[in-house]
Amino acid sequence: MNCIGIETFGGTPVRVTFESTISTVEPASQSGGPYLSPGFIDLQVNGFLGVDFNDPKCTEDQIARSVRGLFSTGVTRFYPTVITGSPADMLGALRNLKCAKETLPEGAAMDGFHVEGPHISPDDGPRGAHPRRWVRPPDLDEFHRWQEATGNQVRIVTLAPEWPQSCRYIEAITAAGVVASIGHTNATTQQLADAVGAGASLSTHLGNGAHPVMRRHPNYLWEQLAEDRLMADFIVDGIHLPPSFLKVALRAKSVARSVLVTDAAAPAGCPPGRYQLGEQAVELTADNRVLLVGQERLAGSALRMHHGVQNLMRIAGLSLADAISMATTNAARAGRVPGRTNGLTPGDRADMVEFDFNSSDSTITIKATYVSGQKVYQA
Questions:
Q1: 231 has which bridge partners?
Q2: Distances, alpha carbon 311 to alpha carbons 81, 108, 224, 288, in Å
Q3: How far apart are CA 223 and CA 195, in angstroms?
Q4: Which class for 145: exposed (0-12), middle (13-18), buried (19 or more C-beta within 10 A)?
Q5: For helices 320-327 and 305-316, what crossing angle results, to 10°?
Q6: What pTM value is reported for the model?
Q7: pLDDT per residue over 176-219, tens digit each?
Q8: Alpha-carbon gap, residue 114 to 36, rounded angstroms
């Protein structure tokens, strides 16, 4: 098979030939046409199209429908994310997702799993929307149960490094090839440094899951921004982060160490109303915020990935190429997604997205999505 389009990073027409992986990328004589990019990668997806991945009773049909919805946003690989809950519910959700990954045609897009919590700060603010009653210390036995349930497919674990057991835990999971990501934390400067020394390599949705008021310095936001060994991901929905923080954070981390995530929850892609996030009821408001019912606390987002790319250009002033890199090759490096770190390059997976781009308002319109060379979405 082949596709012809404007290669996003170079801005020139190319012809890409592929089967399950990319065979060749050659200059094309055709001018104009759609843009052609590596497929988007989302490292943090709690749910989509009304489907909550934290629900152990979520059916395969529901999961398949949600994944097809993600394809329409240009996503080709993603990490279903299970947040803090009871040990039984978290294990059940992971086991359910693993079954869907192995049996559904759409399951190949679930490249692994992200466990966000339960080893996070119990404090209001850093805890975010995670239920306090299920917050607990790092436990390697629990981690091994997750891996047994998923066939060693948990790829990212988000935790707070202030727990006394954190460094030993980080050393163990990173030795097993899992990304240790810092998030929902109230850690001190030394605790953060110790975590990075132990192998932590990512910051989860930096700028969120934090106190509304904190000391100006030092604090855990500045320390993570300044730590060059940490990549960082950001929710760019225009709600979670103000433009000033996003711009400064991207300058501090550099685009090369920054990743776009949606942190999408079940309401993403749905009309306003009530939905679930694990055991908690959430509400999608008319202004597109996902809140715990009866509170003003954000509980994930309703962001779609191609809108996040648009927002990086509109809010942060990034170029199309830089915004796409945060959604593709940077995400692959941060999440250790195999076969996806080089972009449209021979040998990489044939995960691609065709889209139209309006440079006057930075609008992206997805036309087609391919996963391992198979067309999974056509506008």
A1: 202
A2: 23, 28, 23, 14
A3: 12
A4: middle
A5: 140
A6: 0.98
A7: 999 999 999 999 999 999 999 999 999 999 999 999 999 999 99
A8: 28
Residue among 42, 111, 263, 351 flagged as catalytic: 263
Give tens-digit pLDDT for 260-308: 999 999 999 999 999 999 999 999 999 999 999 999 999 999 999 999 9
* Beta bridge partners of residue 3, listed in sequence order: 16
Tokens of 254: 């550099």
What are the two backbone dihedrals, phi and then psi, of residue 37, each rounded to the nearest 5 degrees?
A: -135, 155
Confidence at residue 33, expressed as pLDDT on a 0 to 100 scale:
81
Write b or e for each residue in 170-203: b if 16 or more Cβ atoms lie within 10 A of its Cβ, otherwise e. Answer: bebbbeeebbbbbbbbbbeeebbbbbbebbbbbb
Q: Which domains does the chain have, with CATH numbers?
A: 39-340 (3.20.20.140)
The fraction of the chain above a pLDDT of 90, given in percent, is 99
Give residue 247's region: left, alpha or beta (phi > 0; psi -120 to 50).
alpha
Angle at 120 between CA 116 and CA 123, to 5 degrees: 130
Burial (Cβ within 10 Å: 0-12, 13-18, ≥19) of residue 98 = buried
For the record, the structure tokens of 158 come out as 């988000």
Tell me the β-bridge partners of 264.
Answer: 45, 301
Mean pLDDT of 25-39: 90
Model confidence at 370: pLDDT above 80: yes
pLDDT band at 32 (very low <50, low <70, confident <90, very high): confident
Supply 319's token pair.
């170029």
| Angstrom distances, CA of residue 296 to CA of 13, 167, 326 | 47, 33, 29
Q: pLDDT tens-digit profile of 82-97? A: 999 999 999 999 999 9
Q: Does the active-site annotation cover 263? A: yes
What is the per-residue pLDDT across 324-358, written as a single tens digit (0 to 9) for each?
999 999 999 999 999 999 999 999 999 999 999 99
